[in-house]
Amino acid sequence: MNSVCAYCGVGCEIEAEIENNKITKILAVKDGKSSGGDICIKGKYGFDFANSTNRLRKNLISYKFIEKNAENMPFELQVRLSNLYEYDHIFYEAPFNLAIDITAWKLKEILKSKKAVGGIGGARTSLENGWIFQKFIRETLNSPHIDNCARVCHSPSLSGLMMSIGEGASSNSFDDIFDSEVLFVIGSNTTEAHPIVANRIIKAKQRGAKLIVVDVREIPLMKFADVKVILPFEANLLFLNSLAKEMVERGFVDSEFIENRCKGFDEYKQNLLNEKNDKTFFKNLNGYEEVTSQIEEVAKLLTKKTLFLWGLGITEHLDGTEAVNAISNLAMISGNFGKKGCGVIPLRGQNNVQGCCDVGCLPYYGPDYTTPKEIGLMTPDMIEEMLKGNFKALFCMGEDLTHIHTNQHKVHKALKNLELLVTMDLFINDIAKHSDIVFGVKSSYEKYGVYVNAERRLHLSIPLIENDLPDDWEVIQAIENRLKGDFKYNSSKEIFNHLTKEVTRFKGATYERLAKKPLQWPIDEDGNDSPLLHIDKFSTPDGYGHFHFRPYKIRDQIKNLLENKNKFYLTTARHIAHYNNASQTKESQKLLKRYSDDILLVNPIHKLPNEVILKSKYGQTNPLKVKYTNKVKPFTLYTTFHFANSKINYIFGDEADEKVKTARFKSIEVEIVDYCLQ
Ligand code: SF4
Fold this sequence. Notes:
Elements: E1 3-4, E2 13-19, E3 22-28, H1 41-45, E4 59-62, H2 63-69, H3 75-80, E5 85-86, E6 91-94, H4 96-112, E7 116-121, H5 127-140, E8 146-147, H6 155-165, E9 182-186, H7 190-193, H8 195-206, E10 210-215, E11 227-230, H9 236-249, H10 255-261, E12 262-263, H11 265-274, H12 291-301, E13 306-310, H13 312-315, H14 320-333, E14 343-346, H15 353-358, H16 379-388, E15 391-397, H17 401-404, H18 408-416, E16 420-425, H19 430-433, E17 437-440, E18 449-452, E19 457-461, H20 472-483, H21 492-502, H22 511-516, E20 519-520, E21 545-546, H23 556-562, E22 568-573, H24 589-594, E23 600-602, E24 611-616, E25 619-620, E26 624-628, E27 636-640, E28 668-674
Parallel strand pairs: 7-8, 7-15, 9-10, 9-13, 10-11, 12-21, 13-14, 15-16, 16-17, 22-27, 23-26
Antiparallel strand pairs: 1-2, 2-3, 4-6, 4-17, 5-6, 18-19, 19-20, 22-28, 24-25, 24-26, 24-28
Helix pairs in contact: 4-20, 5-20, 5-21, 6-14, 9-12, 9-14, 16-18
């Protein structure tokens, strides 16, 4: 049996051993294209969620919602309320059709009021579900407000690459790592967040490739690095621009490539040469003086065949889009596009976040990155409109809005202004607890569906076990049928066959072809796929790569360092044993044993109590256990955000990428408080 791992954007192929409709073991597929025949501990042990007794197997309606709405419901619905049964202290259990009818009735009421409605989600479920979700929001509800969790992760990769090379996705396959002479990894804790890609990097290094790793703390991959660069917080763009200036000044550029394939180089070069904040800047930065000579060393290495890989350490900043664009500039300067072993690989987070963007779950792109009839609101703007009372109904499809987004006090306040919050999920996670209506749906191990990983590869995932819960599309279609009646699908496959006509990059993909072999988009009508992009020309309208220069603005920790002020800065990331809100991984005892709390890493020069609270101007965390390590510099703090109870995301605010509003999760000034003294 073949399926796809339910977690990260590597998209490892898996097979399973099943007993009595229960997964007992998950194994790697030996000739897996994306997995390279391996899986990490999450893939291997993170399957208990599927058969967990905690799974949501019902449709729920909150007492609060019924109390508020019952008297306004049509008589026929009021009569049927006698079919509600007590589920717990928050919810009634409802028959599927009643939950659908109540949702549809309430939606109609809200639509009459002309208040805004919208939806967020799709990155954890199939392409088919993502496509039908945006179609439902755009066409059935006549709303442009559709977004997905790329808002909190790789939207800057899409925007930064779009403006440069016209395609916001990986240019290469993961296996190209073995063809590279140099691997440049920045802002990616690859061994924990994308372990199977990290395995390839380490193997390539052992076979002779040079490895450059850049981060704000000493991450495990640095053990293998030829050059390990520890940057201060918020210095990515400064570092990347300094590197480009160094390459231009020393003539480390591929003039022929620039001449034939790119536009705007002369202006870009002039801007770089005029830029005062360059490698010398780091010489005056206490504790980071070494970066100056490292820039000289790295600049020379980038003249070789280089693959550039990055993660959220690049995108989750004020200048995420600009930093991605700066990476693309480096790849163009050095002629590192269009061949095996060189190019750009944004390490996408969730198993289908690439696909969910491809099928149009974005407010500014319809399916296949077309321009939609109307540009909708991004998630942070939806929250603002909720606060103002202009936005009244929200659908969350596998998106734990009250856990994984920033400024949670604000999010919670905003959600209180909704008249209808509908969630489709596997568990009663944090957002479900705040919802009016919750539908328990199939997991990816229980349904057919296509997933697109971070190397643009489409995998057909087939059910490993059976259950009789609806798939997301069945919930959406049932609601649509009460409102309009245009959706008449009988299976995921039918939806897929329909969507490939709209999303032309999937044109030649069919369930039959994908069952034989996963394919990388764009896929021609005859089924030929595209492991490598930008071979002769870029995907921009004129076919050229475009240089843009954005100067770095001094701020936050760097400003403090220049003024000799020592302030604590926190960065967050994932632990290998868990995935985002841990709703699935924490169902596995083996994974929980590996990591069961969000632990705070602190340099030993600081003497702290065993547990501390972190405070920012936005809020405070719950007590966090302290662990000392030299892997973080003094005044650098690090933790994960897997457990809702830690309230990590309560301390991050509205600061975000200025173009696409991806929140600045990777850097916040905090105060440390001894919680015993509170
Ligand atoms: S979590 Fe990612 S790296 Fe690990 S098995 Fe799943 S897809 Fe592969």
